[in-house]
Design brief:
Elements lengths: L1 H5 L1 E5 L4 H14 L8 H5 L3 H9 L2 E6 L5 E8 L8 E9 L8 H15 L4 E7 L3 H9 L3 E9 L2 E12 L8
Parallel strand pairs: 4-5
Antiparallel strand pairs: 1-2, 2-3, 3-4, 5-7, 6-7
Helix pairs in contact: 2-4
């Protein structure tokens, strides 16, 4: 956790689109199997797309002491989900700083952001074979729902929905 204390979790807006783009593209390069999108697809996005993405989601970046981005998470209202649920997307931490509390801090920001938006729950989908992500989410208070779906971009893999309540007692800390 020593680096997590030196890392600042900062909510960003559309004027931070270049930082978000750079972190997201790095995430897709280094952890392509963990996301529902692809590097080739997102490399084609114009500035207007990145700005729109930041207008329609709540996003945080993790910045180290020198201001270098080390992680990212976004929170969205997922189509078809309950009105009082917010959905975690794009969680990623740079490989060189993993297992130092940054993922936990980003998730905590997302859960608190959901509570600030009057969401009763925060949910996410995780691919079955991503054991390190499952471990992080469970330790951060997310529980399995049993809801499963085929991964849209790879029908040979499945993912499960996890949920965490934002009510008092459900927040970390």
């Amino acid at each position: 956790m020593r680096h997590a204390e030196a890392v600042q979790i900062r909510r960003v807006d559309e004027d931070d689109w270049q930082t978000v783009r750079d972190v997201r593209l790095r995430a897709l390069r280094e952890s392509s199997d963990a996301f529902g999108s692809s590097l080739a697809r997102e490399e084609r996005f114009a500035e207007s797309h990145w700005r729109m993405r930041l207008r329609t989601s709540t996003t945080w970046v993790a910045l180290d002491g020198s201001g270098e981005p080390r992680g990212l998470v976004s929170l969205v209202q997922e189509p078809g989900s309950p009105e009082d649920d917010r959905h975690v997307v794009s969680l990623w931490v740079a490989p060189e700083v993993r297992r130092q509390g940054i993922g936990w801090s980003l998730l905590d920001a997302a859960v608190r952001g959901g509570a600030d938006q009057d969401a009763a729950t925060v949910s996410l989908w995780v691919v079955d074979d991503n054991a390190s992500a499952v471990d992080l989410y469970v330790r951060a208070g997310f529980t399995r729902t049993g809801e499963r779906q085929v991964l849209p971009r790879d029908p040979d893999r499945t993912e499960e929905r996890y949920v965490r309540h934002t009510a008092p007692g459900g927040l970390a800390g």
